[in-house]
Design goal:
heterodimer; A: alpha+beta; two-stranded antiparallel ribbon; B: 19 helices; 70% helix
């Protein structure tokens, strides 16, 4: 069975990660940033090594997003449709593993991802999460 | 088996791989199946030679083993496809008179034909790159998949599709005819250039594997230069790679952050690489037309020769960029030209050049334009405007490492504003 692990972030989170001072948000030093990168690389490499990784991608900042919305029957394009603090999809992993529990166990490893060490907002304020969702491989699975 | 033996064998196999594949395809056709057969022969050699010794004629050994394996594979395939109208594509009796497969003199020509085949215009650039690395570079699918951060399965699919596309296109296994050749050689050089950049642009993190891609591109460019020693653009391409790669040791700081050219510690550059690139360029420049690779190599050489950013021969670089704009225009070349103008004639001259580029749609919203403007504004002393431009560039950039670099520049100006 395939599962999708999704993580989220707001434009503010991206800005902090990119080294910009954001009020009320801890800053990411160069070391913090490098540690996070190393963790993510190790995480994906482990999954590739165990043969469970199908695909993984990170998404660029929400400010680069475009929304195509149907209005009065006409598709209308809006640049950067999200509010600064709105959490949107930031990246995902697709894993193929034996059970939902195993997929959840993989997602739980993300809890060990290093964060910013700078001041401004304590870690307890933040409750980051990852969602795990089973993937329907065919239309039949959805119709059952 | 010693590690040394295994390493020697690996080196030998990578040199022989394209020659063997070329020979087998020329003799038997069936590019896609032949490639599988050669991979199996190489695998057998990698297992047997380090312990049992290298045979007297390693190339002949590999061709024989691969040909036997190909026969097996084709038999299995033909049993499946016998009734299909595949016959039209099989060899005509006239073609059986091709030179024998293990005739050594043809080795180099076969490698060249393979390069042309892998960079066939019917394939997408991504497929051209993957196929070139596998068929000519002798890299395994796993190595290529790791370098491009995709799964083995996805890369296997990409390579298989590419091989099938080459087989289906029905291109005969020979050098492209005369009038087509310059264009096809251009495609080959472009693929090698893309492989090099793929390895050079990434600097840290998952990119560590990718630096090997630059090395591989240099190895393939050397091979191409050996096959076509009289082509000055091929020499220019190899020189460009060497002169650029020479700066790699100084290009990243201890925390993996990018160090701009002007701030790099020049003693850490690879001076043997620089000397080799300069020699290639000196030999190539007087021959024939000066193409874009030679011009870019000449610019890289001027940077490499300079003891510091200030002492660089900027007027000469400006002149070379002007020539480059004439032979292969493009907004990024114009942007680099503006930087060179600023260095030669002052930041205001550069900013005036930039103003002319702002209307170019291809640069609209591109962070490089804002980053260059920020840099020139900083040089001109307009720190507030520079800071805004750095922030704009950071917002436009999609790469987090670049964003961090641009935010750091902006933050530095904020502090120096407070304490002038």
């Amino acid at each position: 069975m395939k599962y999708m692990i999704l993580v989220y972030g707001s434009q503010q989170d991206y800005d902090a990660l990119a080294g910009r001072a954001v009020p009320g948000q801890p800053t990411w030093s160069a070391e913090d940033f490098a540690a996070m990168g190393a963790f993510m690389e190790e995480f994906s490499k482990d999954l590739a090594g165990s043969g469970e990784l199908v695909e993984t991608r990170g998404l660029t900042a929400p400010v680069h997003a475009r929304r195509v919305q149907l209005e009065h029957g006409v598709p209308v394009v809006t640049d950067g449709p999200y509010a600064e603090t709105q959490e949107v999809l930031a990246g995902y992993w697709i894993v193929e593993c034996e059970s939902f529990d195993r997929a959840s166990q993989i997602a739980a490893r993300l809890a060990a991802c290093p964060g910013p060490s700078g001041s401004g907002g304590s870690p307890a304020d933040r409750t980051p999460f990852a969602d795990v969702r089973p993937i329907a491989d065919s239309r039949n699975e959805l119709e059952l | 088996m010693t590690g040394r033996d295994a390493e020697d064998t690996e080196g030998l196999l990578r040199v022989l791989a394209p020659q063997v594949l070329g020979a087998v395809v020329r003799r038997y056709g069936h590019f896609d199946t032949a490639e599988d057969a050669v991979q199996e022969a190489l695998l057998a050699a990698a297992q047997q030679w380090p312990g049992g010794g290298v045979p007297a004629n390693p190339r002949g050994w590999l061709i024989t083993v691969a040909a036997r394996r190909l026969t097996d594979l084709l038999r299995a395939e033909q049993a499946r496809q016998r009734r299909e109208e595949n016959a039209a594509r099989r060899m005509l009796p006239g073609e059986w008179l091709a030179p024998s497969a293990d005739q050594p003199a043809a080795g180099s020509d076969d490698t060249l034909i393979l390069l042309f085949l892998c960079c066939h215009p019917a394939l997408s650039p991504a497929s051209q790159i993957a196929l070139t690395l596998r068929a000519v570079g002798g890299l395994t699918t796993t190595e290529i998949a790791r370098a491009f951060l995709v799964t083995d399965v996805a890369m296997t699919r990409r390579i298989t599709r590419a091989k099938q596309a080459v087989a289906a296109s029905g291109v005969p296994f020979r050098l492209p005819p005369g009038p087509e050749r310059p264009q096809r050689l251009g495609a080959v050089m472009h693929v090698l250039y893309l492989i090099f950049n793929e390895g050079y642009v990434t600097t840290s993190g998952p990119g560590l594997h990718r630096s090997e891609l630059s090395g591989e591109a240099i190895r393939l460019a050397r091979l191409l230069h050996r096959l076509l020693p009289g082509d000055s653009e091929v020499a220019g391409l190899l020189a460009l790679m060497l002169l650029t790669d020479a700066r790699r040791p100084a290009r990243t700081g201890p925390d993996g952050a990018l160090v701009p050219l002007a701030e790099q510690e020049r003693s850490r550059w690879n001076h043997a690489c620089i000397a080799e690139g300069q020699d290639l360029l000196t030999a190539a420049l007087p021959r024939g037309a000066t193409g874009p690779y030679q011009l870019q190599a000449a610019i890289a050489a001027l940077h490499d020769e300079a003891p510091s950013a200030e002492a660089t021969d900027w007027p000469q670089i400006v002149a070379l960029y002007e020539m480059l704009m004439r032979v292969s225009g493009g907004p990024v070349v114009a942007l680099n030209h503006a930087v060179a103008v600023a260095m030669a004639h002052g930041p205001h001259a550069g900013l005036a050049r930039l103003a002319g580029l702002e209307a170019d749609e291809r640069l609209a919203g591109d962070h490089r334009l804002s980053a260059v403007r920020a840099h020139l504004l900083e040089l001109s002393g307009d720190l507030a405007a520079a800071r805004d431009a750095y922030e704009t560039a950071a917002r436009q950039a999609t790469n987090l490492v670049q964003q961090r670099y641009l935010h750091t520049r902006a933050a530095r100006l904020t502090t120096s504003d407070v304490n002038p």
